Amino acid sequence: MDGPYLRVEENNEVLPLTAEVTTIGRGSGVDVRLADPSVSQLHAELVRRGPYVYVVDLGLSRNGTRVNGRPVARRVLSEGDVVTFGSARCRVGGIVREEIRPEAEMRRSAAPELTRRELDVLTSLCRPALSDDAFVAPATARDIAQDLVVTEAAVKQHLLRLYQKFRIPEGANRRTRLANEVVALGLVRPLPAMEQQRAS
Fold first, then answer.
1. pTM of the predicted model, to two decimals?
2. Which residue numbers delimit the FHA domain (predicted)?
């Protein structure tokens, strides 16, 4: 097979990674569906950049993503790496061998400049993913509007600007990708338990 692929160890199914972004999870809307109950509805993404492939854990699962047994948030993959989503094991192949350090993590871009209101929107967006509850998705525009006592239209305008600032391409799971990037950059942090109770 030409190009990178993912082999699911449970059934030996081979899935070519032809798209720029391949979503992985247990939900019906993902590109690679894994039935294992330890896998979240939307668990991770495999991203192709030229000859390279990296895995991004979307940070919304309790069981995380591992590469060769080590937990990762975002990591460049090498030929033969075993990627585990929850308990579901997959192996990547078809990746050009190059001198990439096996421990290499993708460098995160610097955070864009944000207004106070944009930071409020991002904090509200990420709150479900950062709480102890088993949420599988960030807040909706309606949730954020209620949280910040503004109109849903205003929130959508803020989100559009934030997608541009963080360079989140159009497509499915855009809010989740934005939340993942924001959490990865450390722009929002889990609320202390006391504040969580006050917020609920």
1. 0.51
2. 22-72
